[in-house]
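Re: weekly structure request thread

Next one in the queue (491 aa):
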Amino acid sequence: MAQIKLYNTLSRTIEPFNSLTPGRVGMYVCGPTVYGPPHLGHVRGPIVFDVFRRLLMDQGFQVRFVRNITDVGHLVGDADEGEDKLQKQARLEQIEPMEVAQTYTDSYNWVMDAMNVMRPSIEPKASGHIIEQIEMIESIIHAGLAYESNGSVYFDVTAYEKEHNYGKLSGRVLDELIAGAGNASRELEGQSEKKSAHDFALWKRASPEHIMQWSSPWGKGFPGWHIECSAMSAKYLGSEFDIHGGGMDLLFPHHECEIAQSTAAHKHEPARYWMHHNMITINGQKMAKSLNNGIKVSELFEGNHPLLTRGFGPNTLRFFVLQAHYRSTLDFSQEALEASEKGLKRLLEAFKKIDGVVPESESTFNTKEIVQNIENALIDDLNTPIAIAQLFELAKYINMASDKKAKLTLSDIDEIRSAVARYFGGIMGLNAQDRSDDNGAMNEVMDILIQLRSEAKQEKNYALSDAIRNRLKDKGIELMDSKEGTTWKIN
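Done, posted below.
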């Protein structure tokens, strides 16, 4: 078992990874708030943590991987104001909140399956763990670090600061937070109930019209956003576990609040290692509703978005994500996806040739060194770009040997086969079968069918035109006619 090294956000250094229990790892990753279809911002984290989980398993660890579903308590603002995201979407769609949650949980898991992300060991839902959250809130109150106010319960950050450091993960200083909050923030909904503007909600009193509410010692209400992860990680991994993962956007306030809650309830911090991936930008800009530059994953697969002229397959998307180090910003564009698609195709074509290489008695290359470089890159803070660069070196060796410009021994060939299976397919989770062009091929087929239908309509062969539309509809593909032409989508 090689020594894995990991950047720990808590210490801001790369540290050797040592699990609490030898041979076992407990890992908690913040999952989606399921109030809308999965978008591009949802894909990087699951891929990164999936690869890290596979690396741990490859090194012989038994991994319990917990990823939650937030289906209650996450308000539209992080400052404890506004409407519950699920309830707001339910009101817009005029359906039950749990219908919204189920619909988009299914959509999220479909996308994860398509990208070959392993399902979690446990996938707990916030709404299914109300009792655990209430019990944890009671323990925080008992510790003197939370208070009830008008049916809501808030974490007392000032009291916590007397013995602990609220801000140790994010590096924020409480005095700066207080100054930044200002008097205006106290005018927000619920702020007047707080002792200080930077206190955060553990439990919120529900108004009579609030759909999602539960009984509690403080009256009818619903949990705050942060408490769910503290309660569920403790339930399934213990009050202290190995790794907590998530995006940089969750570092503050969510993960900072998690540390404070767990420390207050259990007298120690929850996770020993905090692992954060950076964000995906689009053409150099942060994804934001105000910029109207968000891309649904379904649009990316189908090519139905103004920033795309065609679709790209899940294998290409996964490869694109892994070409950048997880702690660096990843910029998305069609050109970047096309480059990833071409690079992936080069690798896959080379790997196919290995079976046709005739082994020689001596070798031109040191394949053992390249294979070792791949492992060294992966165990060194999950450096997938270097690992991929080394896979391209192996591809170069295969191509040269295939063209009789270099020699590989039988041992080299076996080692390359093993490395492709272990690192490319096993740890990085990339499909060794050439499925990267599945959506490109699908687009080409659909272009042909749309052209045939157009020609049938021009020839007034409406029976054939309708037959094409109806047969596609039976297969879940909808054609949409407009003045600009015909487009399609998968229902």
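Residues 179-189 have pLDDT under 50 and may be disordered. The CA atoms of residues 283 and 333 lie 6 Å apart.
Next request, please.
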